Each structure stands twice: as C-alpha cells, then as structure tokens.
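Sharing a chain and its predicted structure for anyone who wants a worked example. Both blocks are below, sequence first, tokens second.
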Amino acid sequence: MQVIWRSPEHGLLMVGWPEATWHLELVDDPSNPPTPTEEDLLVLYLGNAVAAATVRRVVEAGGRTVRARNPYWDEWGITFEDPDGYRIVLSSRNWTNTPSED
C-alpha cells in the first residue's frame, strides 16, 4: 500500500492502492485516545505463507508479534500488535465469500 493522502493538521493518513475502490483511514485524535481490545483485528488474507522478510518489516516499523486471543489466527497466520495496541493478522489463507468448515 502507499500513502494516498495525509493531513497532519487533522491527524489523518489514508493508505491503499490508488486504483482500488477502497482505502484505510488512520486517524489520530488526542481528545479520543485509542481503546483497543484483543478482538480489534484487521485481517489481510495473503493466500500463502507469511514471508520472514514481511514479519521483519512489520517489527522494524514498530509492530510486535503476539499470540492471538482466538487460536484460529495462530494456526492460519501471524498476529501483530501496533504501538497503540491494535492488532493486524496476516493470514496464510485465501479469502472466500463462502463459509468453510475448517
């Protein structure tokens, strides 16, 4: 992903792919401090194993690997916690819109 737009005076950072129909908005509002839980997850389905270089880059950027509250994510990916306490899962699974039994 890349930075699409940044507004330091509003504490806003938008990231994504310019050609995509979506983006993520990250907001820093000192009057509303973050209150994350272990279930606040952003899950990215990679469709293959998480590369060691990717793990290293996330850690170098300030994330830390953690055990997931739900063991499903430990089986199917790696969970990171960012400096604010929010969690990101890099899943080795493919996303599908149909429920699975595994």
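Comments welcome. The helical segments are 52-60, 71-76.
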